[in-house]
From TrEMBL:
Pfam families: Acyl_transf_3 (PF01757). The chain crosses the membrane at residues 49-72, 92-110, 116-135, 147-164, 184-200, 212-230, 242-262, 274-297, 309-327. The keyword Cell inner membrane does not apply. InterPro entries: Acyl_transf_3_dom, Glucan_succinyl_AcylTrfase. It comes from Xylanibacter ruminicola. It comes from the Bacteria. This is Surface polysaccharide O-acyltransferase, integral membrane enzyme. One of its GO terms (molecular function) is acyltransferase activity, transferring groups other than amino-acyl groups.
Length: 337
C-alpha cells in the first residue's frame, strides 16, 4: 500500500527553505561573520537583525533534520540497504560534491558553505543504514508527545549543548575527517534527526493531540519573543549565559508546534504548493550562488539595508525555485534534484 502523501511536511519544508534564503539574505546587512559579500556602503546595516539570525538558528536546521529523519525508516524498509544507500549517494552526494566543488573554486580554498547540511544529512543516513544492517527496527509503541516529554528532550539537548559550548562556542566550525560541522549545534542536529526517526516509528506526528501541539507552539512563540526582547540588561545576560539550554527548548517547542500547526492548517495540496515542494531541495542548493551574484550586482544601488534585505530575499527565492524547475527538465536530473 502506498503511503499517503504528507503535504503538510512538504509545505513546511518549502517555508523553511524560504526562511533559510532570507536568513542568508540578511547576513550581509547584519553581523555577516564569514559571509562572502560585504556592502561597500557602511550605512547598509541592520543592527537589530541578529535577533532574526539567533531565533532562526535556534530551530530551523534542527527542524530540517527532524523532517529528513522522519522519512528515513520507511524509505530504508521499502528499498533495502543497497538501494537506500545508492539513492542517498545520488541525491545527497552528487549535489554536495558539485556545489561544494564550485564553492571551493570560487573561494580559493576548501569550502562547503550551506552544503554542510546536505553533507551531514548524507552522513546521518549512512550511519542509520549501517546500524540497520545489524539491528532490527524499533518496534512501535503507544507513546505520544507530551509537554513534559518535550521539555525533557529540550532540557537534555540544552544541558549537553551548554557544556559543549564551554569548549566550542557558537559559530565555531570544525573540519574533521571530511565532515564540516559546528559543535555548538551538532547535538541538536543529531537529536532532531533521531527524533524524526522515532516520530516515524511511533507515529508521533499523527498522535500529537491538538492541545499539546497548540501549547508547544505557544511556548515556542513566548521563547522566541523572549529572544527578540534581549537588548542589554539582566534579561539579556541571563539568556546569554544559559543560551544553550534556552535555545534547545526553543528548538523543540517551536519545531513540534510548527509540525502541529501545518498538520492542522497547512496541509495544502494545490498545484502551486506541489510545484514549490518539488523545487525546494534544489532551491536550497542553488540559492547561495545566485544570492552572492545579485548582492554584488546591486552593491551600488541604494535601497536602504532593509530594502536590500527584502529585495534580495524575494528575488533569490523566486530565482532559486525557477532555476531548479528549469534544471530539473534536463533528463535524469530529477533523480538528483
Amino acid at each position: 500500500m502506498l503511503q499517503k502523501r504528507l503535504f503538510y511536511l512538504d509545505n513546511l519544508k518549502v517555508c523553511l527553505t524560504v526562511l533559510v534564503i532570507f536568513h542568508h539574505a540578511g547576513q550581509a546587512y547584519g553581523d555577516g561573520g564569514g559571509w562572502a559579500y560585504h556592502p561597500s556602503n557602511p550605512a547598509e546595516v541592520m543592527p537589530w537583525i541578529w535577533h532574526f539570525f539567533s531565533t532562526n538558528a535556534a530551530f530551523f536546521m534542527g527542524l530540517y533534520f527532524l523532517i529528513s529523519g522522519y522519512f528515513v525508516p520507511k524509505s530504508f524498509d521499502k528499498q533495502g540497504a543497497g538501494t537506500f544507500v545508492k539513492k542517498k549517494l545520488i541525491r545527497l552526494g552528487i549535489p554536495w560534491l558539485l556545489m561544494g566543488g564550485l564553492l571551493s573554486v570560487l573561494a580559493g580554498k576548501l569550502e562547503t558553505g550551506h552544503m554542510w547540511f546536505v553533507e551531514n544529512l548524507l552522513f546521518f543516513s549512512l550511519v542509520y543504514a549501517g546500524i540497520r544492517l545489524f539491528c532490527k527496527p524499533l518496534l512501535s509503541c503507544t507513546s505520544k508527545p507530551t509537554i513534559i516529554g518535550l521539555f525533557i528532550v529540550g532540557a537534555l539537548m540544552g544541558v549537553g549543548s551548554y557544556f559543549i559550548r564551554q569548549e566550542s562556542p557558537q559559530d565555531h566550525w570544525i573540519f574533521w575527517m571530511g565532515l564540516i560541522f559546528e559543535p555548538a549545534h551538532y547535538l541538536q542536529y543529531v537529536m532532531m534527526f533521531f527524533l524524526g526517526i522515532l516520530a516515524c516509528r511511533f507515529e508521533w506526528l499523527e498522535k500529537m493531540e491538538n492541545r499539546i501541539g497548540a501549547i508547544a507552539l505557544l511556548i515556542g512563540i513566548v521563547l522566541a519573543i523572549g529572544n527578540y526582547a534581549r537588548d542589554g540588561g539582566e534579561w539579556n545576560a541571563f539568556v546569554y549565559r544559559w543560551f544553550g539550554i534556552y535555545e534547545s527548548l526553543m528548538c523543540v517547542f517551536i519545531s513540534f508546534g510548527l509540525l502541529w500547526l501545518f498538520r492542522e492548517y497547512g496541509n495544502w495540496s494545490s498545484r502551486f504548493w506541489q510545484w514549490c515542494a518539488a523545487q525546494s531541495y534544489g532551491a536550497y542548493i542553488f540559492h547561495m550562488i545566485l544570492m552572492l551574484l545579485l548582492q554584488y550586482a546591486t552593491d551600488t544601488i541604494w535601497m536602504r539595508a532593509f530594502g536590500k534585505f527584502m529585495f534580495i530575499g524575494t528575488a533569490i527565492t523566486i530565482a532559486s525555485f525557477v532555476l531548479t524547475w528549469l534544471v530539473r527538465m534536463i533528463p535524469g536530473v530529477k533523480k538528483v534534484l
